[in-house]
């Protein structure tokens, strides 16, 4: 039996200790319908990310008749069998593990442990290529991200929570007031950004929704021998197609700020992404994209302030400035 990982204490995830116990996990795996696995011969766990009171992600390596098999496990604070079901539906819609555009193969949802298991995909994250100025295929990496999203929006079934504009505006208002409550010197920028978003929102009500990833960035995209695989399905939803596009673009701005001190260092990547996305036959309404991108800027600014780490206020103010700039121009990249 593999060595026990150190216990991660989190009362809000009641099944966490059991899910991270190799003996307990081996017992649950033995009930699954893949007899090639001999969990008793070896099972190793390694925690890779822990989001307190929400979920814990870890690697699972287990011995099979043909060698070691690697899985990713995610244990949740609540029953998230809906993620497994959504992944199965997406896979059957043309995104199987061996397809050109894919997701990881879902293996099981172990209800007693609140544990999702899916195959680990070996590959290079698109972000690693995009940020590397010496990578010869950084443009190709952006293009593949755009093509994956376009195909997903065209083919995947709509499932999960539907994006509700009214509810989102309520959240946006609460987020800008967070700056006011903290008496931050740039709270007025947050107020102005919210007011402009609120004023432009009525024009978005007629949008037809499509399948949404919910957190689509180049960090969620793996490039594997000609295949493009998107991971992390915790936030799957049904939303305006411009929402996932906007989140990808805002993440590029964040990357520019982090690696080069400029939110526009990866504007080239944004242009490639939008051009490739449009070339697939997909179109976006510039005002819709501007709204979504500016709103996500406010969302990320609030997240920065909540972190209370070094540079958080500078990052937050930069995001607010960018959100205002986007809305003042009326479009994102025209």
SSE topology:
Layout: H1 16-19, H2 22-29, E1 43-51, E2 55-64, E3 67-76, H3 81-92, E4 101-102, E5 106-110, E6 115-119, E7 124-125, H4 126-130, H5 138-155, E8 161-162, H6 165-181, H7 187-200, E9 210-212, E10 221-224, E11 227-230, E12 237-239, H8 241-260, H9 267-279, H10 286-307, H11 312-329
Parallel strand pairs: 4-11, 8-12
Antiparallel strand pairs: 1-2, 2-3, 3-6, 5-6, 7-10, 9-12, 10-11
Helix pairs in contact: 5-9, 6-7, 6-10, 7-10, 7-11, 8-9, 8-10, 10-11
Summary tags:
334 residues; alpha+beta; 2 domains; 5-stranded antiparallel sheet; 4-stranded mixed sheet; 45% helix; disordered N terminus
Count the strands? 12
Estimate the helix proportion, in percent: 40-55%
Q: What coarse outline follows from CA principal-axis ratios?
A: globular
Radius of gyration based on Cα positions: 21 Å
- Total tally of structural domains: 2
Please write the string of helix (H) and strand (E) elements.
Answer: HHEEEHEEEEHHEHHEEEEHHHH
* Beta-strand residue fraction: 15-25%
Q: Output the CATH topology of the largest domain.
A: Aminoglycoside 3'-phosphotransferase, Chain: A, domain 2
CATH architecture of the largest domain: Alpha-Beta Complex
In the CATH hierarchy, what is the class of the largest domain? Alpha Beta
Class inferred from helices and paired strands: alpha+beta
Low-confidence segments, ≥5 residues, pLDDT <50?
1-5
How large is the count of helical segments? 11
């Amino acid at each position: 039996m593999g060595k026990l990982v150190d216990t991660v204490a989190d009362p809000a995830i009641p099944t966490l200790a059991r899910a991270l116990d190799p003996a307990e996990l081996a017992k649950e795996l033995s009930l699954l319908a893949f007899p090639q696995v001999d969990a008793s011969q070896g099972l190793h766990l390694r925690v890779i990310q822990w989001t307190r009171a929400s979920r814990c992600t870890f690697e699972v390596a287990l011995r099979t008749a043909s060698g070691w098999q690697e899985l990713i496990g995610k244990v949740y604070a609540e029953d998230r069998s809906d993620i497994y079901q959504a992944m199965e539906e997406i896979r059957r819609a043309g995104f199987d593990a061996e397809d050109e555009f894919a997701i990881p193969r879902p293996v099981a949802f172990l209800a007693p442990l609140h544990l999702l298991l899916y195959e680990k995909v070996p590959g290079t994250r698109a972000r690693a290529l995009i940020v590397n100025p010496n990578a010869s295929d950084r443009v190709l990496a952006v293009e593949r991200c755009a093509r994956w999203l376009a195909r997903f929006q065209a083919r995947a079934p709509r499932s999960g929570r539907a994006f509700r504009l009214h509810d989102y505006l309520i959240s946006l208002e609460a987020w800008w007031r967070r700056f006011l409550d903290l008496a931050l010197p740039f709270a007025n920028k947050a107020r102005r950004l919210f007011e402009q978003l609120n004023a432009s929102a009525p024009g978005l009500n007629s949008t037809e929704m499509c399948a949404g990833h919910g957190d689509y960035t180049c960090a969620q995209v793996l490039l594997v021998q000609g295949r493009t695989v998107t991971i992390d399905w915790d936030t799957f939803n049904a939303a305006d197609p411009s929402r996932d596009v906007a989140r990808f673009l805002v993440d590029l701005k964040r990357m520019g700020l982090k690696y080069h001190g400029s939110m526009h260092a990866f504007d080239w990547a944004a242009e490639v992404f939008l051009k490739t996305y449009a070339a697939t036959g997909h179109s976006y309404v510039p005002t819709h994209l501007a709204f979504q991108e500016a709103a996500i800027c406010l969302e990320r600014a609030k997240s920065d302030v909540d972190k209370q780490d070094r540079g958080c206020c500078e990052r937050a103010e930069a995001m607010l400035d960018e959100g205002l700039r986007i809305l003042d121009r009326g479009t994102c990249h025209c």
